[in-house]
Amino acid sequence: MKKEKISVIVPCYNEEESLPIFYKEITKVIKEMGNVEFELLFINDGSKDNTLNILRSLSKKDKRVRYISLSRNFGKEGGMYAGLENATGDLVAIMDADMQDPPSMIKEMYRSIKEEGYDCVALYSPNHKDYGFIRKVFTKCWYKLIGAISSTPQVPGAREFRLMKRKVVDAIVNMKEYNRYSKGLFSFVGFNTKWIKYEAPDRIAGKSKFNFWKLFRYALEGILAFSTTPLVISAIVGIILCLISFIAIIIIIVKTLVFGDPVSGWPSLACLIIFMGGLQLFFFGIMGMYLSKLYLEVKKRPIYITSETEKDKEYDRH
Ligand code: UDP
Ligand code: MG
Questions:
Q1: What is the pTM of this model?
Q2: What pLDDT does 224 receive?
Q3: What spacing in Å lies between the alpha carbon of 286 and ligand 1's midpoint?
Q4: Does ligand 1 have an atom closer than 6 angstroms to the CB of 222?
């Protein structure tokens, strides 16, 4: 009988330090899972370090290693899509190169799919000790908010670390939207999913590519891309105006209480005008965000652009 094949997609952005460690670990796991064939599909997401050269030499000495080098940095979402679209396995896994998604867990994930009949096994790590206080608070609020306003359920602490059957992958690849928020898409496609809780370890080497602001933008689903910034600024200006009017209201109330108010009426009116103006800008901003998404969707720009793969022999000349 033909062996089943698992494709492991690994998005890599400046991972020269982590990659050799990751490769060593994953090959250990592959050896232990002798009854399954593997394909390692690395996506070089426009790395500025030696990542591409490492991938070139890995693919030369190991036929299981494939890579797709993107023409620039498209972000992890673009990288994952490139991987999902090009993976050839019967089952497909996604994991980070930094060992925060331990390769050894694939064994348990595979078992759950084979023996318990799940279509998909996903991991979540809710209490990340690495996160600062503010990030923890924001994350908690975000999950509360999204839970309240969205009909697509989001598991707090969900990672992109997962193993999926081919039918799940096909469903995801069929959603070709440009503004990709994969955790939402994974949830949207449904299927019988098992959630496994684990404690994500710290990154083995290198630095996280997601700082607070990057995560904030990620939470807004990359709305700020291209020339839509003014729309967001209008929303922020709206909020600032609201805050100013609130402060003004408090000052006026206190002033009136302490000194009396010789000209009655006009200050509160002024506050109201500023407040309403601010509020209107704020909501215009929100509308603008949706419009900007639509704008980018309509353009149908590619989600990623390939520059080189393991099949290209061009690099051999260098
Ligand atoms: N990554 C990527 N493109 C990017 C940023 C990150 O392909 O623009 C990859 C990165 O190499 C890693 C994974 O996505 O394998 C997760 O990134 P990171 O560890 O920096 O994020 P964190 O775990 O801190 O959320
Ligand atoms: Mg990481």
A1: 0.79
A2: 39
A3: 28
A4: no
